[in-house]
From TrEMBL:
This is Nucleoside triphosphate pyrophosphohydrolase. The keyword Cell wall biogenesis/degradation does not apply. The keyword Nucleus does not apply. GO terms for biological process: dATP catabolic process; dGTP catabolic process; dTTP catabolic process; dUTP catabolic process; response to stress; TTP catabolic process; UTP catabolic process. Keywords: Hydrolase. Residues 257-330 form the NTP pyrophosphohydrolase MazG-like domain.
Amino acid sequence: MKRKITIVGLGFGDETALPIGTLAVLNHGDMIWLRTENHPVVKWLRQKEMNFHTFDHVYESLSDFDLVYQEIVTRLLELAEMHENIVYAVPGHPMVAERTVKLLKELAPKREIELDIRGGGSFLDIAFARLGIDPIEGFMMLDGNDLKTEMINPRLHILISQVYDRLVASDVKLALMEIYPDDYEIKVVTDLGIADTEMIRSVPLYQLDRLHIFNDLTSIYISPVREEKVLYRRFDYLENVIAFLRSPEGCPWDRKQTHETLLPYLIEEAYEFIEAVHNDDVEAMADELGDVLLQVMLHSQIAKEDGIFDIYEVIKCLTEKMIRRHPHVFGQASAETAEDVKYNWEEIKKQEQGQEIGKTSILDEITKGLPVLLHAYEQHKKAAKVGFDWEKKEDVLMKVAEELDELRLAKTKFEQEEEIGDLLFIMTSVARMYEVNPEIALFKATQKFARRFRYLEEKARHIGKDMEKIGMNQLDAWWDESKRIEKEQNKE
């Protein structure tokens, strides 16, 4: 016996929108199943004394839509194995936003059941007409129950379907507000094509979930943005801005930059972000991270112009690395603690670097462009990993004292330079033993010195004297005073 399910669509509205082909299939079907009776054409079908069954009882027994759709598909496949030809009718068009049909396409072939998918009037037809959408301008349709911000392209006509209730509408609103202004005008459309109940209502986005007009046939329409400022949050818009700045019509300064000329700015912007973090200035953090991103974008654009790589290759490399170095998240490895994660990371990194040519020492793994203080810190870390290290903190502190003694005994400028270098170098190992980043520690020290020194300058201005004319005893007293003030502020 040939097993087959014929799938038809009931159209987007009442009987006036019921496709003739669908009606013909229904008139000749022996066993007809409707996904739901909740459709405007069903009342008319009953008046025509058409015999059919519905799966509404499944909706009543299960609360989760995915489970409902899976159960409907399971029962349809079981019915098809017992009867020669099943007709399954769904709202709208079988291939437009119909989860059960998608599941049937996956599962029916595995059970050797043929699917014959016919047409049906999609609600897109009436939506294009009523809302004035020309899809050739760019159109996307999204599911309100599974809407993610990254899916949305504000340059296109967007129709969000299956906004059944205010809860779904609230989720949709939050996703849209990540892209559009709060007062952006949207349209809520309900019962399109049904003469007595059709409704199209324009509202500002922030009011979306305050309405009480949602049902199974409610969708939301968002027109393409016309104001470019709305696109400022989009990555591709930033990419185009950077490309234009580098173009002949763009900026002469940006156009003349190279990888080499930009290097100082990358370091500078990174430190300015560090300063914003230390100052707990969230607005400055966002601004400075933007400046860091600018450097990444400029370097990527230069490389693109040279035919080497572009920003998407950079993103691809980073994504691959994150997945590769997190096998406990994306693979089968396990890591219970942060220390386990760090160990796995370093082991994978070793394997990757072991494949690179020309590295004969573990010290070759250290990035060449690091500031000297951080380079020294990394040298100690690498040496410690292979066992070349002090056993305890007290040992390295004794080494500091030893280097200080040698500095005191140094006579020539050459000897003094060498001993100061040794002292600074050993201090990076002290930082490592205490699990402190020396670059950040020194940065904080410079910030602290700047605050206290500015306090001295302010006190000198207050009494109308130049600092160089004020005795050291007074300056020391002010310095101690600034320390006390800072301690009191920190307590608060």
